[in-house]
Design brief:
With 155 residues, the protein is of the alpha+beta class. Helices cover 34% and strands 16% of the residues. Strands 1, 2, 3, 4, 5 and 6 form a six-stranded antiparallel β-sheet that branches.
Length: 155
């Protein structure tokens, strides 16, 4: 009597493994995208705190993120080499001052609705977290209300 697996048994095992991979990979990718979004929530909360501190001292909000004392942890000039994913800030201005580009390299043009003045601010974060060319866009305002403007996880 020979011991071992037949070719059909091995093919069945390979088919089962392939089926499990097909089922689990999309869920895993969605989990990764959600973890990237958690970074945006954390950074938008930090920007909110920095804007409030700046307002307490100067009586106005600012579009200059560097002036309010905020930049992403370990910022190195923007782009693929960064440790953060989203692009944060305001649509116009200069990299490293009015916006910070993360490793997903989402263009700052998605931040165009962001603004700051004496009484209010709206700051955006944008990142194509699932690679479909449609960015996830979140905002924070002077009331610390964080909203999902465009949900990349639903598309």
């Amino acid at each position: 009597m020979k011991k071992g697996f037949s070719l059909i048994e091995l093919m069945i095992v390979v088919a089962i493994i392939a089926f499990l991979a097909v089922v689990s990979v999309p869920n895993f990718m969605k989990f990764l995208a959600k973890s990237k979004r958690a970074e945006a929530y954390m950074n938008l909360s930090a920007i909110y705190a920095a804007e409030k501190a700046y307002w307490a001292e100067h009586g106005t909000y600012s579009t200059d993120l560097k002036a309010i004392g905020w930049q992403p942890e370990g910022y190195r000039g923007g782009g693929k080499g960064e440790n953060f994913y989203y692009t944060y800030g305001f649509g116009s201005g200069a990299e490293g001052k009015n916006y910070f580009t993360g490793k997903l390299e989402t263009p700052s043009s998605y931040l165009a609705p962001a603004q700051a003045n004496k009484n209010s601010f709206l700051i955006l974060a944008a990142g194509d977290i699932d690679g479909d060319s449609q960015p996830d866009i979140l905002s924070v305002d002077q009331h610390n209300t964080i909203k999902i403007i465009q949900d990349d996880l639903l598309s």
